[in-house]
Design a protein that fits this description.
about 325 residues; mainly alpha
Length: about 325
């Protein structure tokens, strides 16, 4: 199955609109930043000192999603088999923006933004679902699957990343009081997060489910394994890279040589996320295995027609 030209143009426009919405809020945060633009990056990375005159709206998720939206828009314009990319981008956007329905209720602009992003994400899913058509195998490529070795490598890395993320969520659930644990998933008052950011527990759960789902699709070598794995790899690489950047800024990497505790394990996890995400991107970004259209069914040979007129004894 491929995507019609109209669906491809629509998907590119929807992805571009999502990117513009996020960029608009990033520019808003830059406008209210008290220092240099780099201070906003460090705030995304986890610097506890907010450099803004007002409550920040964006988080580390937003620049990563901007890149994902831009790549999806380009893929929709260039490839007739971009349905999986449109669907993966729409599904991830719905998952991470859904909590905004109740966490941004007190801010009309943020709530309108959340509703707009959810509508655009749903439209991406509908475009991917209803914009398909049978491929003209003589002139158009079929969706490709990751090659066997690449699929196994990506699947293992994504599986490990998902298990590590799940272990951290279990750790915080056991470590924090029940009220804080609930707030980490619902965005309660005990958790202070940027205006548009999903609650940290919710985001962690989405990343775990995304990584495990992408791992399963890679092991099964589904046609949608590549776009789903690329989105998961981009998020892992982005969050891991920002965490390590902050550790380098505050010279926290020197503590890796000491006794291992939660702080050291978090640094190791950030390093693993960065390396695993980059490896998944490198493995899945290459060309997939070409698929051959199934051959038409053979018509059984019929016996020769009897001669006319028939000879005696026919």
């Amino acid at each position: 199955m491929t995507v019609t030209r109209a669906a491809r143009l629509t998907g590119a426009a929807l992805s571009g609109a999502l990117a513009l919405v996020v960029v608009g809020w990033i520019l808003r945060d830059l406008a209210v930043t008290t220092g240099s633009p780099a201070d906003l990056f460090w705030h995304w990375a986890g610097d506890p000192v907010p450099p803004l005159r007002e409550r920040s709206a964006t988080s580390a998720l937003d620049p990563v999603l901007t890149v994902v939206y831009a790549v999806t828009a380009v893929a929709a314009l260039r490839s007739p088999v971009a349905a999986s990319a449109l669907a993966a981008t729409g599904a991830v956007t719905l998952a991470v923006r859904l909590p905004g329905l109740w966490t941004t209720a007190a801010d009309p602009a943020a709530l309108i933004t959340t509703l707009l992003e959810l509508a655009l994400a749903a439209a991406l899913l509908l475009t991917a679902a209803f914009g398909r058509r049978p491929a003209d195998t003589a002139h158009e490529p079929l969706p490709t699957r990751p090659r066997p070795a690449r699929a196994v490598a990506a699947g293992v890395l994504l599986l490990l990343a998902g298990l590590v993320g799940a272990a951290w969520e279990v750790h915080w659930a056991l470590e924090d009081p029940a009220e804080i644990t609930v707030d980490r998933f619902t965005g309660g008052r005990s958790v202070l997060a940027p205006l548009l950011a999903p609650p940290p527990g919710w985001l962690g759960a989405v990343l775990v489910l995304l990584a495990l789902t992408a791992a399963g699709s890679a092991f099964a070598r589904r046609p949608y394994a590549r776009p789903l794995g690329l989105v998961a790899g981009a998020l892992l690489c982005g969050f891991g890279g920002m965490g390590l950047a902050l550790a380098v800024r505050y010279e926290l990497l020197d503590r890796l040589s000491g006794p291992y505790g939660v702080e050291q394990l978090s640094l190791v996890s950030a390093l693993f996320d960065l390396l695993a995400g980059a490896a998944v991107l490198a493995v899945l970004a290459g060309r997939g295995e070409p698929r051959v259209a199934p051959a038409p069914p053979r018509t059984p040979a019929l016996p020769p027609a009897p001669p006319s007129p028939r000879p005696p004894g026919w």
